[in-house]
Amino acid sequence: xxxxxxxxxxxxxxxxxxxxxxxxxxxxxxxxxxxxxxxxxxxxxxxxxxxxxxxxxxxxxxxxxxxxxxxxxxxxxxxxxxxxxxxxxxxxxxxxxxxxxxxxxxxxxxxxxxxxxxxxxxxxxxxxxxxxxxxxxxxxxxxxxxxxxxxxxxxxxxxxxxxxx
Length: 165
Hints:
The protein is an all-alpha fold. It contains six helices and no strands. The protein has one domain (about 10-95, about 130-160). The longest helix has 23 residues, at about 75-95.
């Protein structure tokens, strides 16, 4: 798998018309960069409580299926990434009330030493059962999306066509 290419001019690329530029990457990479999908999905991405998470995950999953119906792999992959991000972000807030995992942001100074120091300064867990329930709701939809047989076929096709090493 080719890595996600952060060097692209994301502000000026329409990935719907230039699918050859899209790289799946790992996990949620590019979820807030790839247009027009980011703008289509982001307004529905919410996880404040289980009721909102259920509505959000169901809407995003519906969009995922709509993208699949149009054989739009990038749209489906972006919807899958938003579902994954719904899980990871609500899980982060479930574990850390502030949403911050570390006392200091390791990305502000991304040296190896700063990253190692940040890992030693993890904030304590403060489990929030409401956010944990939101996380579980998103996780179920994310798993449903990433194991969808049509999605997996389009993923394989995209990699075959565009992600040759």
